[in-house]
# Entry
Amino acid sequence: MRRASLVPGGPVGPAPPPPGFPWELAERCVIPVIFAHAAAAILSVPAAILGFHSASMLRLFLWIAPAVLAALFFFHNLKVNAAGKAVLITGCESRIGFALARQLDELGFTVFAAFEDTGGEKSSSELTTTTSALKEQSSGRVHVVQLDVSSEEQIHKVKEYIQENLPRGATGVWAVVNLGVWACFGEAEWLPFGAVKRCADVNLLGSIRLTQIFLPQLRRTKGRVVNVVSALGSIPTPLRSPYCACAAAVRAFSDCLRLEMRRWGVDVVVVTPGESLSGSFLTEERLVDQARSMWAWLGDAAKGEIGQDYFEMKVRSLRPYVEMQQPEVELYAVLRALTDAVSRTFPLHRYQPVQPQERLKTFVAEHMPRSFYEIVYG
# Structure
């Protein structure tokens, strides 16, 4: 069986592979299983006092646990009715954003696909080709809008456009998916401050401002905010300090917002994909341009102390991230997590579509002492 490619202009490819181990579901089962064990331990005491010796703690656990897990699986698999629900997705110029817009359209959602056109890194012809491909491969429920999340004016224009084109009966958007990404690469001393500020404007401040503006609509629909945050928010990585800092900040913002929105019935979901599954937005041309701007930014004294050989060695170390841009990188795991975050009635607080080695590294970074992490991965 074959299915259409998930990337613009891509070839028809094989059907998606069978899903891997459902780590998120397994994590969701931990507390119910503990509850079943605790309930069995508590109930076994009065049962023994009343003479029901057959009702041992083990037998009670074997009765309670399946019932609890069956209820959990039932609620976990519930999905919302997509008809009449609108979703705003930023960063649709990326492979993930493009694929998610198509996937949600196929499920029946009304999709507002936002493309960023800064006039620099993506030419107008390339942007036109991508937006045209999305329109051709999608139904009439897909609306293409231009949105730079760092622009207050553009955010308000998109809000007005969405309000005028909502599905019949809808009081607001059902979900806002923050997928816009911009990153600068290099050691902290080398990075022009304008690049650092741009990184914060798009990845952190833009996401916060966009969420603020759409929260009144999300309250009315009891919808959800879906923030896509790189796993680098938990894993300190050289040459990408501003990006790591913004990812960590967005995660903290999401956790706080979840507590604030609980009373309104608005879910806040964090999706933390690994780079080996989501690919990279760093191209060869962008890598060269950033290297030139960083070297020009450095003063003569810093250039003499750092040395051009060391600088070029560090720049060459980023080339593996350029290779992640290749179309062979599969998006199925990330796409499934994002689709679940939008379409499940009871989504998880966090989805982590990463490779096993990335999951282990993230676990060590988040739950083990920092000294242990430095010994293993430092």
